[in-house]
Amino acid sequence: xxxxxxxxxxxxxxxxxxxxxxxxxxxxxxxxxxxxxxxxxxxxxxxxxxxxxxxxxxxxxxxxxxxxxxxxxxxxxxxxxxxxxxxxxxxxxxxxxxxxxxxxxxxxxxxxxxxxxxxxxxxxxxxxxxxxxxxxxxxxxxxxxxxxxxxxxxxxxxxxxxxxxxxxxxxxxxxxxxxxxxxxxxxxxxxxxxxxxxxxxxxxxxxxxxxxxxxxxxxxx
Length: 221
Known about the structure:
This protein is mainly α. It has one domain (4-220). The chain has helices at residues 4-32, 37-44, 48-65, 72-96, 105-128, 136-142, 144-160, 170-173, 175-220.
């Protein structure tokens, strides 16, 4: 069983690390842009990497303040953060890292956004949960958040002629290729949500058994 202080510390640390990574990368993105503050800001906060880190920060932050919260929307945000940040980490290292060249502070912010935050988020979720927030309904609700982003990204790509990510470039790759890629990623998100559901239930059962096992050990002693 994890005590309340540890739970809050892990959740607050996760939220803080995600916000620090987003905040540190933001001025670097602005300084490297050439199309004005508004355009560069909209573009920056439209990336899935940034959105996923912010969702992680929101879900972990809300529960750091009060780990006992059980509102459906809070549970959905927490679960969405875990699902999205895993996709961010894997997607970046499998599809994008080879073409991404960073220098200076960018090396560290890139590491934070795409590697450290995903690892810390998953380890933190496994360690402190909170347990019992993942249900069939929450898996469904949580997937609405990346679905909204996907619609935004596709519309933006068609309107501006500039895809958010190379694998979403309909003009170059074709509708079929992009559709298959996005379907695979969407299917992975669903499978990941179901895996988290099963893991949460297993960890919740184990947590419920721990006090009983401790009492048995004490009585044997």
